[in-house]
Design brief:
The protein is of the alpha+beta class. Helix content is 21%, strand content 23%. The chain has three helices and twelve strands; from the N terminus they run ααββββαββββββββ. The strands form four sheets. It has a four-stranded antiparallel beta sheet with strand order 2-1-6-7. A four-stranded antiparallel beta sheet has the order 5-10-11-12, with helices on one face. The protein has a two-stranded antiparallel sheet with strand order 3-4. The longest helix is centred in the N-terminal third of the chain and has 22 residues, at 7-28.
């Protein structure tokens, strides 16, 4: 004799499946803040790798050190949008580049790193100079606000706040950028030597102001002095 589920048993099974789905669903949801942090850590390490492989030393140029490989975070990029009803005037994005030969602290295409996984794209979410957000050779994933919902990026501790870019030398050591004198180990001001001497903290947040963000609204990325080791705190 064949046995079958009764209607009541089926209702119980459906109810239990529904409860489990509600309970477990948050665990499977995309954590965009963590994804953004992981990507940034990877790109900071890649910037360090480029710097160690491509020393920019030039004995004939007193300002050669300003052209080292660096990663820079931008906000309020001045793009002329070609896409109707879409603006990019208040987003966070970042670019990996070597600021040479122009030393303008604003990356041009010839200074940007190429995506090692797709050499038709630059490692940039766009810059206010030559590479626009709408260009096919920019990377959407490097536009943090658009891709991950990041609303604020803050540098602190060993990093100078407000100057949101980090350089590396051929030994992999991290430096505050930028400086206009011809001293590669000079000081930006009395508090911030060019060579980073204590842990640099980079907060990325999904709220407008990292200084008031709750613990689940921000992630802190640390760059250690001397070694340049980059990790999530």
């Amino acid at each position: 004799m064949k046995k079958a589920f009764t209607l009541l048993e089926l209702v119980f099974v459906i109810a239990i499946v529904g409860i489990l789905a509600v309970v477990l669903a948050p665990n499977f949801q995309r954590d965009s803040l963590q994804e953004a942090a992981n990507q940034i850590v990877s790109h900071i390490r890649y910037t360090q790798h480029l710097a160690m492989m491509d020393n920019k030393f030039d004995s004939s140029d007193a300002n050669w050190f300003q052209g080292r490989w660096e990663i820079r975070f931008y906000k309020n990029l001045s793009f002329t949008s070609l896409i109707p009803n879409k603006t990019y005037n208040d987003i966070w994005a970042y670019t990996i580049y070597a600021d040479k030969p122009h030393y303008l602290h604003n990356a041009g295409k010839k200074e940007m790193a190429k995506n090692p996984l797709n050499n038709k794209k630059y490692l940039s979410g766009g810059s206010a100079n030559e590479l626009h957000v709408e260009d096919s050779d920019s990377m959407e994933s490097m536009r943090l606000s658009e891709k991950f919902g990041i609303k604020d990026v803050r540098f602190s501790n060993g990093c100078r706040g407000g100057i949101t870019h980090i350089q590396f030398d051929n030994l992999g050591r991290p430096f505050n950028n930028y400086i206009t004198t011809n001293n590669p180990y000079g000081v930006l001001n009395s508090s911030y030597p060019r060579l980073i001497i204590k842990t640099c903290n980079i907060d990325i947040c999904i709220v407008d102001d990292c200084t008031v963000a709750d613990t689940d609204e921000k992630i802190t990325i640390a760059i250690e002095p001397e070694t340049g080791y980059t990790h999530i705190l």
